[in-house]
Design a protein that fits this description.
Helix content is 47%, strand content 14%. The protein is an alpha/beta fold. Helix 3 packs across helix 12 (358-370), helix 8 (279-288) crosses helix 9 (299-311) and helix 13 crosses helix 14 (405-412).
Length: 496
C-alpha cells in the first residue's frame, strides 16, 4: 500500500511538472495567468484524487483488519475434538477430590482456594481460544472409600464428568484410584509426593508434581547433617513415621540417606506412629540419644511427639516431610520457641512473600484482590502450581485440536512437553524413564517464630507482607546423594 501511494505521488508530481513546463517563454501575461489558474485547478483535482485514493486505501486497510479479525475468530472457533468434561458452550470441567473435613482440611482448603483463584484469573483474561474453566470440588474427608466414590462421580462420561482431576488429596486415595484412572485415561494431579507416581507402570495417568517424599527426605537429612556438624555434634538419626505410602516413602528416603552418608540410626520408628497412644515412640526418641530426628507425620502427631520429647529434655534437631510441620498449628502452640530452636522444615516451593520470584508476586496480588479476607498462606503456591500444570496441558490440547482425555494423557507423556512455574518451583517434565522423570531438588526452611505474622491477604503490603514464619534458607537444594543416586523405580511398593 505504501508503494501505491508513492507511485501515485510521483505521477502527480510528474503531471504538475509537465503542466508547468508545457508553455513557451514568449506567451502573453494573460496566457501565463490562465495557465497558472489551470495548474492550480489541476493540483486541486490531483489533491482530491489523492484524498480519494487515501480513502480507498483506508477502506482496504479496514477490510484487511476485518479479515484478520475473522481469521482470529475462526481460530478460536476451530473444531476441537472432545469427549468428557467439556460442555457444548466450551466450558472445561476440572475436578478436585479434596480433604476439606479430615486431618489435612486446613491445609487443603487453602490449596483449593489458591487453585480456584488461579482459574478465576484465567477466565477473566478471556480463557484460551474461546474455552473457559469450571472447577468441581468434592470433599473426601481423607477417607479412601469416600475418595473412590468421588472419583467415580468425577470420572463419569460426557459433560457431567471432568476432563482431568487437578487435586487429589492423599497417597491412600491416589493409590486406590490409580488403576481406574489409567483405564479411564483420567489425568490426576495428586496432593501427594509418593515415589510411586513417576513410575509409568504404576501411575500412568498420575501426574506428579515436584519431588518425591523419598528424595525430599534424602535432601533434608543431608542438609541437617551438615547443620548438626556445624554445631559440633556427631550425627545420629531417629526415624519416626506413620504407616502408609506417605510414612513409608519418607522412611525409605531417610534410610537411603543414612546408609549413603554413614549416619547411624539410633531409633527406627518406621510406621510406628499409629493411633492416639504415642508414649512408646516418644520414649524411644528421648532414650535414643539421636542428634537428628526425621518425621513423616500429620501436624497433630508432630505436635504431640515433638512437644513431649522436648518437654522431657530431648535436644536433637528435627526435620520432616511436608506437611509434618504446620505453622498454624505449631507456631501458635506452647512450643513455638522450641520449634524455632530445633526444627527445620523441608518443602517443595516458594512460601508466601519470597522475594525476587515473579510467580509469587502474581499470587500475592491476585489473592489480595480476590480473597482479601483470607489469611496469607504458603500453600496458595501449591494450588497455583496445579493450575499452571493443567493450563499448559489444556492449551496444548486445544492447539492440537484434540481436547479428549486420551490426548491429554498423550501430551503429558510427550518428551517435548515440560512446564515452568515462574520461579515458584523447579521446571518439570514427565519422561517414561523413572530416573530421568524424578525432580531432585527441594527447599529447606528455617522456622522463625519471631517472623510469624498471619494477616489477611488484603492487608499485605511490601513493607508488611506477613509471614508464616518459614524462611527459605536453601532454595532448590540438591544434596550429593539425591543428585547422583540412581533411582530405578519407586522407593516403596503400594500398601494395597
Amino acid at each position: 500500500m505504501r508503494r501505491m501511494r508513492w507511485l501515485l505521488a510521483m505521477l502527480l508530481a510528474f503531471s504538475m511538472f509537465a503542466v508547468a513546463c508545457g508553455d513557451s517563454d514568449d506567451s502573453s501575461d494573460d496566457e501565463t495567468e490562465t495557465t497558472a489558474a489551470d495548474t492550480d485547478d489541476d493540483m486541486d483535482d490531483a489533491d482530491d484524487d489523492m484524498d480519494d485514493a487515501d480513502d480507498d486505501m483506508d477502506d482496504a486497510d479496514d477490510d484487511m483488519d476485518d479479515a484478520d479479525d475473522d481469521m482470529d475468530d475462526a481460530d478460536e472457533a476451530m473444531e476441537v475434538a472432545t469427549d468428557h468434561g467439556v460442555t457444548s458452550d466450551n466450558v472445561i470441567r476440572l475436578g478436585l477430590n479434596a480433604d476439606l473435613s479430615g486431618p489435612f482440611a486446613s491445609l487443603v482448603a487453602e490449596i483449593v482456594e489458591g487453585q480456584t483463584v488461579y482459574w478465576e484469573v484465567f477466565n477473566e483474561a478471556g480463557g484460551y481460544k474461546g474455552y473457559t474453566v469450571e472447577t468441581v470440588t468434592l470433599d473426601s474427608g481423607y477417607a479412601t472409600d469416600k475418595g473412590i466414590q468421588n472419583y467415580q462421580e468425577l470420572a463419569q462420561d460426557g459433560e457431567d464428568g471432568v476432563l482431568m482431576i487437578t487435586e487429589n488429596t492423599g497417597s491412600p486415595i491416589t493409590s486406590a484410584i490409580a488403576p481406574d484412572a489409567a483405564d479411564d485415561d483420567m489425568l490426576v494431579i495428586p496432593l501427594s509426593w509418593a515415589s510411586l507416581w513417576p513410575d509409568p507402570d504404576y501411575g500412568a495417568t498420575i501426574l506428579e508434581k515436584q519431588t518425591t517424599y523419598c528424595i525430599e527426605a534424602i535432601n533434608a537429612i543431608e542438609w541437617l547433617k551438615g547443620y548438626v556438624e556445624e554445631q559440633g555434634l556427631e550425627p545420629s538419626l531417629a526415624i519416626v513415621t506413620r504407616p502408609g505410602e506417605y510414612g513409608e516413602d519418607g522412611a525409605a528416603g531417610a534410610a537411603i540417606a543414612a546408609a549413603e552418608l554413614g549416619i547411624p540410626v539410633a531409633y527406627d520408628g518406621t510406621s510406628q506412629v499409629a493411633g492416639d497412644d504415642r508414649t512408646a515412640v516418644i520414649s524411644s526418641i528421648v532414650d535414643s540419644g539421636a542428634t537428628m530426628v526425621f518425621t513423616t507425620l500429620t501436624p497433630g502427631e508432630t505436635l504431640d511427639i515433638f512437644g513431649n520429647a522436648v518437654s522431657q529434655g530431648f535436644e536433637g534437631y528435627w526435620t520432616g516431610n511436608s506437611p509434618s510441620f504446620n505453622y498454624l498449628v505449631h507456631l501458635s502452640s506452647d512450643f513455638a520457641a522450641d520449634f524455632d530452636q530445633y526444627w527445620f522444615q523441608s518443602q517443595y516451593q516458594a512460601p508466601w512473600a519470597t522475594p525476587g520470584i515473579p510467580g509469587m508476586e502474581t499470587i500475592m496480588t491476585e489473592m489480595a484482590a480476590r480473597r482479601p479476607d483470607l489469611n496469607i498462606s504458603d500453600v496458595y503456591t501449591t494450588g497455583w502450581i496445579e493450575g499452571i500444570m493443567a493450563e499448559e496441558l489444556i492449551k496444548r490440547a486445544i492447539d492440537d485440536g484434540d481436547l479428549t482425555r486420551a490426548h491429554m494423557v498423550e501430551i503429558s507423556q510427550d518428551p517435548s512437553f515440560s512446564v515452568e512455574f515462574d520461579g515458584l518451583s523447579a521446571t518439570q517434565s514427565w519422561p517414561a524413564d523413572y530416573n530421568e522423570a524424578v525432580v531432585r531438588s527441594s527447599w529447606i526452611y528455617d522456622v522463625d517464630a519471631t517472623a510469624f505474622n498471619i494477616i489477611h491477604t488484603g492487608e499485605s503490603t511490601p513493607e508488611n507482607p506477613g509471614s508464616s514464619g518459614l524462611i527459605p534458607i536453601a532454595q532448590d537444594y540438591v544434596g550429593s546423594v539425591a543428585g547422583s543416586y540412581n533411582f530405578d523405580g519407586p522407593c516403596i511398593t503400594p500398601s494395597s
